[in-house]
From TrEMBL:
Any one GO MF annotation of this record: S-adenosylmethionine-dependent methyltransferase activity
Keywords from the named record: Methyltransferase, Transferase
The species this protein was found in: Flavisolibacter ginsengisoli DSM 18119
Keyword Transmembrane tagged: no
Keyword hit for Transferase: yes
A Gene Ontology BP annotation from the UniProt entry: methylation
Domain named Methyltransferase type: residues: 64-155
SUPFAM superfamilies named in the record: S-adenosyl-L-methionine-dependent methyltransferases
The name this protein goes by in its record: Methyltransferase domain-containing protein
Length: 281
């Protein structure tokens, strides 16, 4: 039930997972309708991290990797002429082009390479995207490639290692929480859910990732629940996001970490999110 691989050390299995995920997204064309829940966050003044990304982006040439419906443009605070965004859905990109014809939208055709030239942008950011990436190390390298020297990379994603859990992990043979299974009379599966979710999986993550801040692992869920259970947000997450691992990798690639304000740190900790800002050398 606990089936994990390393994007670094298991290239053949990683290739197979990437192919399976591509088929999943192609088959589920309504995916972007199902996950369009973060658009309102750009308007929420209490969401300090979204507001910080917005403030960093003002007057800059910016790029959003995994742009979805480009909700940041809906705030009307960003000039579409200064915005570029990319995603995998060609139909979604065409809708974005119709809505914001002066923005620069591109379809991602190769998951290993963003459709933009080198050293083009002042700011490149991704919001709740990295956890869905099968090759995080290549994704981070591409972020650096498209940023100008002195430009910034901003990443916002769940802190799965901090939680010692990932939302795509199957905990039992049936979907649902342990409490839901108890209420439905599925006592054995409820017990299995508790044991895996509160004991075995946290122990496994800690053992596998305790040194990831020094030596990258990029642990992937090789059997996310999106292949078996009804869709809900993040059941397709594959990368067990690790703050130190991500930051260390960016630093090694030539993007130094910048200090985050204390209120932003506190907000990220409260939400159990990772928020990183790095400057490209």
């Amino acid at each position: 039930m606990i089936k994990y691989i390393s994007a670094i050390n298991d290239p053949v299995l990683t290739d197979a997972l990437e192919e399976k995920m591509a088929k999943f997204y192609k088959k589920n064309e309504s995916y972007y309708d199902d996950i369009d829940f973060n658009r309102s966050a750009w308007f929420d003044k209490s969401n300090l991290l979204y507001q910080d990304i917005l403030e960093n982006s003002l007057g800059k040439l910016i790029c959003e990797i995994g742009c979805g419906r480009a909700g940041i443009l809906d705030t009307k605070q960003i000039d579409p002429n200064n915005y570029s965004g990319c995603d995998f859905s060609s139909s979604l990109i065409e809708l974005n082009k119709t809505k914001y014809p002066t923005a620069n939208f591109k379809t991602i055709t190769d998951p290993k390479k963003f459709p933009f030239e080198d050293e083009k942008f002042d700011i490149v950011f991704s919001v709740f995207v990295l956890e869905h990436v099968v090759r995080p190390h290549l994704f981070l390298n591409e972020l650096i490639r498209v940023v100008k020297p002195g430009g910034k990379i901003i990443i916002l994603c769940p802190d799965y290692f901090g939680r010692l859990s990932i939302s795509s992990q199957k905990l039992g043979k049936l979907p649902g929480t342990g409490t839901q299974k108890l209420n439905n009379g599925n006592y054995i599966d409820a017990f299995r859910t508790v044991i895996y979710g509160r004991v075995l999986l946290p122990m496994f993550f800690y053992w596998k990732l305790r040194n990831a801040g020094r030596k990258s692992v990029f642990l992937l869920n090789n059997d996310p629940s999106c292949f078996s259970f009804p869709f809900s947000p993040d059941v397709d997450a594959v990368y067990v996001t690790h703050k130190e691992e991500i930051s260390n990798e960016l630093n090694n690639l030539g993007a130094k970490p910048l200090e985050i304000k204390s209120d932003l740190k506190d907000f990220a900790k409260l939400k159990r999110w990772i928020y990183l800002v790095h400057e490209v050398n």
